[in-house]
């Protein structure tokens, strides 16, 4: 869970990258960084917090040059410390390299151990640094070749951008787990996790990088290379369910349309005897609209979100997350009182949010609360870049639907089925990763990586 943006051959590169990151803020709010290249020197600025807080005019003026990449980070690997904030910049025999990464490698620990035994000194605990070490050990005249040698060794999810002396390089793993888009900003190639970043810049969406594609952009020229193919892509369909912004296009589908279709499918699969449909903002908005249209029930904004609080779940500290649920949402009593409410959200992870929201809606006078979720029960952790807790903290891994219903305190609880969900996106069902629901990890996860607890959970959270 990170947002990446890059632009090549534009005199305002750092300013535009800043704007691109601003549009990708929802993909990570923990730290952000920008790197620029001015033809002779790499400049880097990083900080903890949100994009607009870090990059003031003065900071941006320290990023000259017409090649820039930027990153908003939400740690899925390594700690949230400043040392792990990206971009990571190193000096190599091929010149300076700056790298940013969205995704999660699944064999980096084994490679790191091997490299450390051979004398490598790592500066961060981030999986991304492994790629740089592999590159530094395999220098080539063409830097892209060195990158491709490194990428043939790493496994897992990566959408990458690199600033090098020879150009801006973009790469997407052969499975295509995470999105990466190519745009055109007044003739300058640009790259972004999601197309909403191009909209802000007035750039045109050209296409998505293909799974396994590596692109070198230099000035306005782009050259494309291919990593060894895998039989089938495994694109993360949770991007469509929750993570991407609804005004983005991801994996060839407008996210808004996929979410509308999910809500409609949910209404067909699991209708509810109710008076109104209420979305959990913002994650349930489009699915709720789809549900209300299909069920022919009025959509009411019965929960109001305070937009000045970040995504609750996205804070890696449990104490902040708990507090966040309370300060983030408030019910509108006049809309809810005396009504039978269908509450729509995209997912239940630990069950803490849903439980609080159901309680809140009931306290506001709802006669009945029916919870509908626009994806299947999240029963397995993601090892490919979405931050989820380990199995013992995933409520659906420990309890069946009836037990979860009782835990959250709703009259009824239903989830969208997996075939129902896959019917809402345009790709073939086998071309998506569904591991968080099915437990099918189609790219093997290194043994030593499985038990990784991404952030500490207090046990009283999960009753
Ligand atoms: P929980 O209280 O753990 O059940 O959290 C459920 C809420 O977190 C839902 O409103 C989801 O929209 C949201 N959510 C689901 N997965 C994630 C994730 N990986 N990161 C951030 N938020 C998430």
CATH top level assignment of the largest domain: Alpha Beta
- Provide the number of structural domains: 2
User: Spans with pLDDT under 50 lasting ≥5 residues?
Assistant: 451-463
SS class: alpha+beta
Description of the molecule:
The protein has 463 residues and is an alpha+beta fold. The chain has two domains: 248 residues, 4-Layer Sandwich (Glutamine Phosphoribosylpyrophosphate, subunit 1, domain 1), CATH 3.60.20.10; 176 residues, Rossmann fold. 30% of the residues lie in helices and 25% in strands. The chain is built from 18 helices and 23 strands. Strands 3-2-4-1-10-9-11 form a seven-stranded antiparallel beta sheet. A six-stranded antiparallel beta sheet has the order 5-6-7-8-12-13, covered by helices on one side. The longest helix has 15 residues. The two termini are 27 Å apart. The C terminus is likely disordered. The chain binds adenosine monophosphate.
């Amino acid at each position: 869970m990170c947002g990446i943006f890059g632009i090549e051959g534009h005199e305002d590169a750092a300013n535009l990258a800043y704007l691109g990151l601003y549009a990708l803020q929802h993909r990570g709010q923990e730290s952000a960084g920008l790197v620029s290249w001015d033809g002779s020197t790499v400049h880097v600025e990083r900080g903890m917090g949100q994009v607009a807080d870090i990059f003031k005019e003065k900071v941006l003026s320290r990023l000259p040059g017409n090649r820039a990449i930027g990153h908003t980070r939400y740690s899925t690997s390594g700690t949230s410390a400043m040392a792990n904030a990206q971009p990571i910049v190193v000096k190599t025999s091929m010149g300076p390299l700056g790298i940013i990464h969205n995704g999660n490698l699944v064999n980096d620990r084994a490679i790191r151990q091997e490299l450390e035994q051979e004398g490598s000194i790592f500066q961060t605990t981030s999986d991304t640094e492994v790629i740089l070490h592999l590159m530094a050990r395999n220098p080539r005249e063409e830097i892209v070749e060195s990158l491709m040698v490194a990428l043939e060794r790493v496994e897992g999810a990566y959408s990458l951008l690199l600033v090098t002396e020879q150009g801006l390089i973009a790469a997407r793993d052969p499975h295509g787990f995470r999105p990466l888009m190519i745009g055109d900003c007044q003739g300058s190639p640009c790259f972004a996790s999601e197309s909403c970043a191009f909209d802000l810049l007035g750039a045109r969406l050209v296409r998505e990088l293909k799974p396994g594609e590596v692109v070198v952009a230099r000035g306005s020229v782009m050259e494309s290379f291919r990593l060894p193919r895998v039989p089938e892509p495994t694109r993360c369909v949770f991007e469509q369910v929750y993570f991407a912004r609804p005004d983005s296009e991801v994996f060839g589908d407008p996210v808004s349309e996929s979410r509308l279709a999910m809500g409609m499918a949910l209404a067909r699969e699991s209708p509810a005897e109710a008076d109104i449909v209420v979305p959990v903002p913002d994650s349930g908005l489009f699915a709720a609209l789809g549900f209300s249209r299909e069920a022919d029930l009025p959509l009411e904004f019965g929960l109001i979100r305070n937009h000045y609080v970040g995504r609750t779940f996205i804070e890696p500290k449990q104490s902040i997350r708990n507090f966040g649920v309370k300060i983030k949402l408030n019910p509108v009593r006049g809309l809810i009182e005396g009504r039978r409410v269908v509450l729509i959200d995209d997912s239940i992870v630990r069950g803490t949010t849903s439980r609080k929201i159901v309680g809140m809606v009931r306290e506001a006078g709802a006669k009945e609360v029916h919870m509908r979720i626009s994806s299947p029960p999240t029963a397995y952790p993601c090892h490919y870049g979405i931050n989820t807790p380990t199995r013992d903290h995933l409520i659906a891994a420990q309890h069946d639907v009836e037990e979860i219903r009782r835990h959250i305190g709703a009259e009824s609880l239903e989830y969208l089925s997996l075939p129902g969900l896959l019917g809402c996106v345009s790709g073939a069902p086998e071309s998506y990763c569904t591991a968080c629901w099915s437990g099918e990890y189609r790219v093997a996860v290194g043994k030593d990586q499985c038990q990784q607890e991404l952030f500490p959970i207090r046990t009283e959270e999960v009753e």
